[in-house]
Specification:
- The chain starts with a strand and ends in a 10-residue tail after the last strand.
- It is α+β, with helices and mostly antiparallel strands and 211 residues long.
- The chain has helices at residues 15-26, 60-66, 119-127, 130-133, 168-175; strands at 2-10, 35-45, 48-57, 83-97, 106-115, 139-147, 156-165, 192-201.
- It has an 8-stranded antiparallel β-sheet.
């Protein structure tokens, strides 16, 4: 399986147009063949709203058929001309557990790098606590992945941990208030080099929470 992250901004003056399309068209239409899960979230960054579209694909072939050359998935193709600062990254899924995203309102994305020779060790150790994580009140989904052609520095490879949550309070409890770090019991400080943690709000069926 592949998880694909498309980070982007929206052209000035078109936020409402794109948000409406995402809520009422993109996420309600039947998914393309090969899509196992998808969601689109946003956050308020230093330069305005920042967006992410997260898509889990059955395999790389499905991803290739369902996306454009710039990585924009088919379900966002009709608004692609309005997307700016597009950044596309792919990860091979190491572990994916949890019932789904239907009740989730926060998407938490943790990026780090691992020395390439330690990837097998990281994959094994990162998968071990997932069963316990899903017992945390408010957590809906956990996905971990290793970057596909994603080398930040020589000898290192990007990794990602994506979690979906019902509310912000659950994240505060799970991190003891340190929201810029990985969850307390999952830190692998001896082999990971953390880079950032981002939190995105996911839209409900009627309204997108205020950022």
């Amino acid at each position: 399986m592949i998880v694909h992250l498309l980070e982007y901004r929206v052209a000035t003056g078109h936020d409402a147009e794109v948000d409406s399309f995402v809520r009422h068209s993109a996420l309600r239409a039947a998914p393309a063949p090969g899509i196992l899960a998808r969601c689109v979230g946003r956050r308020l960054g230093p330069a305005g709203h920042e967006h992410v579209a997260a898509t889990k694909w059955r395999d790389l072939d499905s991803y290739g058929r369902g996306t454009a050359d710039d990585g924009i998935p088919e379900y966002l193709a009709s608004v692609s001309a309005l997307l700016r600062d597009v950044r596309s990254t792919r990860y091979r899924v190491v572990a994916s557990e949890g019932p789904g995203l239907e009740s989730a309102r926060i998407l938490r994305i943790y990026h780090a790098t691992v020395v390439t020779e330690m990837l097998a060790t990281w994959g094994r150790r990162a998968a071990e606590p997932i069963g316990r994580l899903l017992l945390i009140a408010g957590m809906e989904k956990v996905i971990t992945g290793i970057g596909v052609l994603a080398v930040d520095r020589p000898g290192e490879t990007s990794i990602v941990a994506i979690t979906a949550w019902r509310d912000w309070e659950a994240i505060l409890r799970a991190t003891a208030g340190h929201t810029d770090r990985l969850l307390l019991e999952t830190e692998l400080a001896d082999i990971e080099r953390p880079s950032d943690v981002a939190h995105y709000q996911l839209p409900g069926l009627k309204d997108w929470p205020v950022a």
